[in-house]
Amino acid sequence: MVSQSATKPAYATTAGLVVLVVFLALVSLGTGPVRLSPAIVIDALFGGGSAAQQIIIREIRLPRAILASAIGAVLGLSGAALQGLLRNPLASPSLFGAPQSAAFGAVLMIALGWADVRSYALPVAGIVMAFVSVFVLLSIAGRNAGLLLLILAGLAISSLAGAATALTMNLSPNPFASLEIAFWLLGSLEDRSFRHVMLAMPFIVAGAVLLWSQRSAFRALSLGEETAQSLGIDVTRVRLLVITGVALGVGGAVAVSGTIGFIGLVAPHLMRPVVGYDPARLLLPSALTGAALLTAADIAVRIIPSNTDIKVGVLTSIIGVPFFLYLIVRERRALAGGVE
């Protein structure tokens, strides 16, 4: 049965989320060692204010805010797309090992000296490994995999990617590169420039377009694969396009931010009670929620008192793991016939 919330106009929620993302972006531009008010931020964006304020806003903080919104959006969109594809509420890029595998591909390029942190080889390697991880998981688990099998397969792939990353770092001939990689893998948007924006955005946009193009297929798949096929949906093609879209988006994101987990899991669950359980209706709100979550987390790591900067990937994991455990307990009760 479709919930009453599914009948609510989605445009109101979408408009509210757009306003929230823009507001958080302005707060992000004003947050840092030099605090700037929203009025000063807006003025500096349009050429006003002092030269120092323009440099701080345009060259230092604006790339960081753009990446936070874009990466959060593609992670939220990827999570909603995978949940729609597999009809499983616990599906997300991080649980399938996609970010960990993408990180391994990028780390391998750096450790072997084939690319630096600003090379296009990083997102390409990340995309390839993210694609392989999701493809392997779907191949191992099968089309009708249950919750436990998906979690176990994703855990195995994540562990393997993590071990391969650690081995690559251990064998790296440059200890300073290993230290830089270790901090980068914690997930961070610190010290990012427009070079990083240009590095990641083509892949993020391409992945988002692919995932968005399959929104009608997700609605048909919610009725089951056989029903979707009877409606003319090529399930194999949809699966391949979704895997490619997730790989493009996650690979491009990881190449500039490192591993940031759980955004793709949390965002769709926050929006599902609001916009309903239609997987097509859920995509855009999940993307906007992901953008808001990561931007808010990036603001938080700059205002939390600490001797060193807290990595945003650490904060998202601290918040995401308890949420994930809650979802597992809820799913277990549902399977046992309990009341959610």
Automatic annotation (TrEMBL):
Q: Which GO terms describe its cellular component?
A: plasma membrane
Output this protein's name. ABC transporter permease
Transmembrane segments annotated in the record for this chain: 12-30, 65-86, 122-141, 147-172, 193-213, 240-270, 282-304, 310-329
User: SUPFAM superfamilies per the record?
Assistant: ABC transporter involved in vitamin B12 uptake, BtuC (SSF81345)
Supply the source organism's classification.
Answer: Bacteria, Pseudomonadati, Pseudomonadota, Alphaproteobacteria, Hyphomicrobiales
Q: Which InterPro entries match?
A: ABC_BtuC-like, ABC_transptr_permease_BtuC
| GO function terms (MF aspect) | transmembrane transporter activity
Coiled-coil segments on the chain, per record: none
Q: Which UniProt keywords apply?
A: Cell membrane, Membrane, Transmembrane, Transmembrane helix, Transport
Q: How does it sit in the membrane?
A: Multi-pass membrane protein
What Pfam families does the record point to?
FecCD (PF01032)
**Localization in the cell:** Cell membrane
What family is it from?
A: Belongs to the binding-protein-dependent transport system permease family. FecCD subfamily.
